[in-house]
Write a structure and sequence with these properties.
By secondary structure, the protein is mainly beta. The protein is built from two helices and 20 strands. Helices cover about 5% and strands about 50% of the residues.
Length: about 425
């Protein structure tokens, strides 16, 4: 069975279970062994959890599959293109020592060429401080990149996220803190030091060292109306009072070797001696997430700039000096914003719409970043407490300087959380 057939087979099994539960029902099966001190719980949409109450150890297994089909057309080619896909197929293992505050998570994407996504240890020091080390989602990216792929309101991330971030996952260390009152106002700062080379950042060989320097970043989130679930753009909790989080995040990569600062030697730039002199890459993000009675609003802005470019050459033989604006051919430089709104009905139906634009720093045809307008919408049906999600979505991209690239894509995607 190949990589495409496996997730589809799993999806069919979960589909039968979910539909049997009805649109809003959730099932939970508990098996307790009395003196054996053992319990096992399966929750649809959350996976299997095995616990040993006396020792405080808990183990969990979960998964995600997103098969679908899409239809697309561009102005350059007016014929319709129909295709099928499996966007993601995740398997997740979790383990916790409840008494010591230690959590371990390992997650892999079964259909990716480099499967490992997350592999980290999280230590809860006390009520307000936690430490994480390993490979994880960098907290210094924009708000949407903090959402787990199974909690996205639409099948794919926004144009802004796709432009300035790859997977967002890197190897490193982070410290997260929480201050304030959950009912009134809270502040959640987090700092992170990562490799700056993206996922699986040390290359194919053990002696393939990190490119450039480290990436240093952080995020500051302010909850003016108290704490709430800010891990998705959907108001699953249907908050009775307005909730919001205002965030600012920044990261500074001291040696980028790829378009968004998540690559391991995708390209190289050199100094006058022929040694690597990779440009420094700064990204700033401002975002707002608000929820109230099923309605939600997400607004984000990103700016990216490059530094440390003096005396840089495009080859080790010193053939060509890098001109100041030429760096836009290597890095995504400029601005972007994304505005997204949605409403979740009590029967599980959800309607979302979004609009975004990207703007390059330099008005050059050779720039990686282009002037693009993106508009999209999605109708979602959540089944069995979100264990099954059926989505019908469409997006139109308008390339202002390349009209032949203009086009639309419609997709029908099924998501299974198990």
């Amino acid at each position: 069975m190949n990589r495409i057939q496996f997730p589809l087979a799993v999806c069919l099994l979960i589909l039968f279970q979910c539909l049997g539960a009805g649109p809003v029902a959730a099932q939970e099966e508990d098996f307790t062994g009395g003196e054996a001190d053992f319990s096992a719980t399966f929750r649809k949409g959350q996976g299997l959890e095995v616990g040993f109450p006396s020792s405080g150890y808990v183990f969990g297994f979960a998964g995600l599959a997103q098969p679908g089909m899409n239809l697309s057309q561009t102005d350059a080619d007016t014929s319709l293109a129909l295709g099928t896909y499996t966007r993601r197929a995740y398997l997740t293992f979790k383990a916790s020592d409840m008494e010591r505050g230690i959590d371990v998570l390992v997650r892999a994407n079964y259909i990716a060429s480099t499967p490992l996504l997350d592999a980290y240890i999280n230590y809860t020091v006390n009520d307000w401080l936690s430490i994480r080390t390993g490979q994880f989602q960098n907290p210094s990216n924009n708000r949407e990149m903090q959402f787990y792929e199974g909690h996205l309101a639409m099948p794919e991330r926004s144009l802004m996220s796709r432009t300035f971030v790859d997977t967002g996952r890197e190897f490193g260390l982070s410290l997260a803190a929480t201050f304030g009152n959950t009912e009134s106002m809270m502040i959640k700062p987090v700092i992170a030091v990562t490799s700056g080379d993206g996922i699986n950042s040390f290359g194919a060989l053990s002696n393939d060292t990190d490119k450039g320097g480290l990436k240093i970043g952080g995020r500051l989130d302010v909850y003016p109306f108290g704490d709430f679930d800010a891990t998705s753009a959907s108001d699953f909790e249907r908050n009775e009072t307005p909730k919001a989080v205002i965030g600012w995040a920044t990261n500074y990569n001291m040696g980028a070797s790829g378009p968004v600062g998540e690559s391991h030697g995708e390209w190289l730039i050199f100094d006058a001696n022929g040694a690597e002199q990779l440009p420094h890459y700064l990204k700033n993000h401002i975002d707002l997430l608000a929820k109230w009675k099923g309605a939600s609003l997400l607004a984000e802005f990103t700016n990216a700039a490059a530094y440390q470019l003096d005396g840089a050459y495009t080859s080790a033989s010193l053939g060509t000096l890098l001109m100041p604006t030429e760096i836009s051919q290597y890095l995504m430089l400029g601005n972007a914003y994304n505005i997204q709104g949605g409403y979740l009905l009590k029967n599980g139906l959800q309607l979302d719409a979004r609009f975004g634009q990207t703007f390059p720093e330099f008005d050059q045809s050779s720039s990686l970043l282009e002037v693009i307008d993106a508009i999209g919408g999605c109708l979602t049906w959540h089944v069995a407490e979100h264990a099954l999600k059926l989505q019908l979505a469409a997006e139109y991209l308008n390339y202002q300087n390349r009209p032949d690239a203009n086009g639309w894509t419609a997709a029908f995607q099924t998501q299974f959380l198990f």
